[in-house]
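Example 3.2
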Amino acid sequence: MTNNSNGRLSEYFANDPPSFFDELTNNKSRAKETQPANAAETNSSNMLASTFTGCFQPPEYVEAAEADEPITVSDEVRNLWQLPTPSEPGKQATHLITPGLHIANDLPDPISIAVTQHLGQAELQQRKILGVEDVTQDERGIRTLINAGCFRAAVNLTGRLLTIYGQGYGRAGQPAKHSPHSLQLWFTRLALLAKLGEYELLQAEAEPFDQLNGPDVFYEYYTEMYKGKHGSIACFSFRLLLAELPIYLGKPHLALDRLSELHVISNEIKEHYDRLKNANAAEFWQRRAERVLQSIINCALMMKKFSMIDDIMGGMLLTRSTLSKEEQRSLYSAWGRIYLQIGDIFGAEQKFAVSRRLREINSPPDLRDLVDKGLIAVAKNDFPEAYLIFQKALHLDSGNTMILNNMGVCLLYAGKLKDAINLYERAINLNPQKSLNESLLVNLSTLYELESNNSNAKKLNLLRLINRFKPDLNISVEICLKLQATN
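Structure, written as tokens:
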């Protein structure tokens, strides 16, 4: 991928995407609501949506903020990748990449469909969200839609733009020319489909790309167009997304094979720059290799390969000499939370203790410390204590839905059902755009069912709020609100 600037799509789809461990390893130490560490995950309760380890959560490729690239390198360093060699000497590689859209029409809006079914046309009139026709028909329009959280509309716009490239509906298997822009559009589209949980369509449209090993996704293939340029036209994030794809489809073994190969190549490129004494480039590829390792940990969690996780965390991720104390803290915290997932409270406490010792001397507990401490209290079934700890954490990051979710769970297990409901409802009323997230909605809908046999009216009120404030959900409205389908 070219190092785009000036408002290009890469501002929203980082070449090195945030990882599963974002809320743990982000230098800004800010928990991301999209991948929270849910206190209830350490319990056997099946009440809550899984939102941290234990089941795979897609990485946040889709961002509405500029992506940080801490190491700036040239395109030559960024795109370094070996052109595939033909299987037989003297023959050219012939496997070309010929993608196309697999749906003729736009993705429908499932929230509109649910509102029409459950509340009627009059309520639907209150739905005011951006559509494809409301933005410019270019990548700036895609950015506008992503920024507004209108991910399905953004998918639909990528479809229009790819059709212009001759890669629209019915074009799969037909010859195609690729450019940095067309491949960026495909990556954007597939990343959005992953975010929305549209895995069947994602699998179908990703299949022609395989692992981006076709000769026509390298600059050398287009000698007249890109004279003298070498390496991959496709961005590294695209390769990573395709390697991770089997995880979404419940095939972690296949993903592990693909990710392991991606890690080997990234490491080889890093060693190449080590030999050239290019420290900046070597560090850049070191971080990419580490990003792949984090995805491998996701696979290992699904496959219950806990010794592999220990080997990666202790033997690879934590060995880099340039790790800052804050990065070390983050990794030890992540390691401790993984130990909680497997029920090893003592092991988790040990990792959290190391994380705490790496904090600045005499500095008060920060958000990470408090969440770690709260999770330990939950693991020990001390829900009143956990609630107080999460309450302190909320003072440091008011409105954080991960913390609010945990507080509600603690209240429930402490026997305070109505207080838990009030907590969630208050959070939604104060900030509906932020608090109407899938995990909190599933929780609140479940609490309504526990509270009363007549929970449907309250769920429909939630649907009204979703209609007015939420452009998209990544699970169906019926699952989110536990609504019964009506005839």
